[in-house]
User: Which sequence fits this backbone?
DNA sequence: CTATATTTTGCAATATTTTGCAAAATATTG
DNA sequence: CAATATTTTGCAAAATATTGCAAAATATAG
């Protein structure tokens, strides 16, 4: 096997998984740990990954405070993302907002899926960077350094230029009456995305269900589909079914 | 078997598989390893594949990845960035393009500098994420997965909404007559930024001076200031001084 | 067609690079 | 601080490259 092939596999492993270990890689590639160590050192010096004790981590442009939020309830978010994936068909145009569940969805998008994704979220764009087919359209605007997404009038105007098939909505707070969030700008943005999509799919870990936040976005009944990590037959979802929302 | 046929088979093997090894090819083609080696060297010199130890890899597979470019000539770029910094004053509005020297400038921006930076580059936005004062406006558009920057009509329209104080221009190629680069979209973008700024400052490692690329951007004399890592009294900068360009 | 030049090919001797191992150095954990 | 795990370093063996050269193949000229 060529060194280049090995390097590609190491990079692939590291970027898809977020990290890679010497142990696993040297088994997978049937070479000694020393070789992997040297490979990783080389790739590090080229800036393609970061060598750390025990292996390597992928170089990410995404800042730490966001990263931390990314990792909470990660398992539930993955379950949600998998369910959401079943809704996506080839050739569709989609809004992805800055929610962390939405980000998980971006991460697991199959390589053979040919879709256009419109987003204001850097982490989402970052996750799709390596996707071979997905066309990414980034919404310009002022940069919110907290959420690492764009916002403001420019972004809203950008959204209004489209009418997309599905909006994947990262839910902050949902009650039977309202969808709400903690940031005014974010609320405006999410409303605009809802208004400019045929279907809105809410992604929401269960702990956020039946809560309300300061800024009202829209009435909950405008939601088309709600995805949580719970089974759809779980009794607590009934109030939402009653509103005509499909539970997944 | 004709050499041409062999070459075609080698190219085929390399591109479908991503890579090819001497061992396999010399068995498959029933010639000595030396012959394959020579073939691959020839194909490499024609730019049809890349010769590596043990075989060859397809060229399309080795995109000129931004993360790699970020790390080349890093010391020179830091010198350039420091010089560029002296030009920036409080309250100014600046264009930063996707050049790697420009990125270095973004990285060393002092925390007490209060400026607005308009950019289409993810790495630049990322570098400014921790800056306490800098206001970042991101230009929306299609995402170029190679350069981690937006491009296209949307981005151009975004640029045209401003008239900024200084454009920090990451130079690909510069001769006494023309500024040029390797990508058409990038050329359009850089021209637009020039046209919508009062002053254009070119950032350029010396190895790019006196070179030309495929896509013309604008006449070199439209540049206001040129910064390289060399001292301004260095003799080779004279032809640019003659054009009325200030050397820093 | 023959003789001669040119290119291509394979081989062997000689560099160079890569690889895995083991000992020494260093970092991490309790 | 000791015990353990990980990394670095030097080294020798293996793999791969380079070079020069001669034989074979191909082209060119008369």
Assistant:
């Amino acid at each position: 096997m060529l060194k280049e092939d090995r390097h590609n596999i190491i990079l692939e492993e590291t970027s898809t998984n977020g990290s890679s270990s010497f142990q696993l890689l040297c088994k997978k590639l049937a070479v000694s740990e020393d070789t992997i160590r040297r490979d990783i050192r080389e790739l590090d010096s080229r800036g393609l990954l970061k060598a750390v004790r025990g292996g390597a981590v992928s170089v990410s442009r995404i800042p730490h405070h966001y990263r931390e939020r990314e990792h909470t309830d990660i398992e539930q978010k993955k379950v949600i993302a998998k369910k959401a994936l079943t809704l996506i068909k080839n050739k569709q145009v989609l809004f992805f907002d800055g929610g962390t569940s939405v980000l998980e969805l971006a991460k697991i998008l199959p390589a053979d899926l040919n879709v256009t994704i419109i987003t204001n979220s850097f982490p989402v764009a970052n996750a799709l960077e390596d996707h071979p087919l997905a066309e990414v359209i980034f919404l310009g605007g002022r940069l919110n350094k907290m959420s690492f997404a764009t916002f403001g009038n420019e972004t809203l105007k950008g959204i209004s230029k489209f009418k997309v098939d599905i909006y994947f909505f990262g839910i902050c707070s949902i009650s039977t009456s309202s969808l709400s969030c903690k940031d005014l700008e974010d609320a405006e943005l999410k409303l605009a995305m809802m208004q400019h999509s045929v279907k809105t799919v809410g992604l929401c870990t269960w702990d956020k269900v039946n809560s309300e936040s300061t800024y009202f976005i829209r009435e909950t009944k405008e939601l088309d589909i709600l995805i949580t990590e719970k089974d759809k037959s779980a009794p607590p979802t009934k109030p939402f079914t009653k509103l005509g929302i499909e539970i997944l």
Q: What stands out?
A: The mean pLDDT of chain B is 92. The first helix of chain B runs from residue 3 to 17. The domain at 68-247 of chain B is CATH 3.40.50.1360 (Rossmann fold). Chain B touches chain A through 36 residues (CB under 8 Å).
